[in-house]
Amino acid sequence: MHNRHAWTERTEDGEKREVRAEKFGKVWRIQAKLKSEDRWTYYDKPELHDLVALKDNLERKYQRRRASYEDVQSVEALIREER
After folding, report:
1. Alpha helix (H) ranges present in the chain?
2. Cα separations (Å) of 72 from 13, 30, 63, 67?
């Protein structure tokens, strides 16, 4: 199973933002960029709204057997730490 997940969202200004999350070992790495930007921004400490979006994404994929329950749990733990 690939541990790469991507989604797009709109900012408050209406600009398109693409987010990618990848799990290597037991560490999640999240990167994002606006459509107008050339380079990706890598987050050492992911933002809470990105973690929540990743959890939602993983839960949907888990129902279709495209993500593991361990991945869902690891992101839930990150959200609990962040709150």
Report:
1. 48-63, 69-82
2. 30, 15, 11, 8
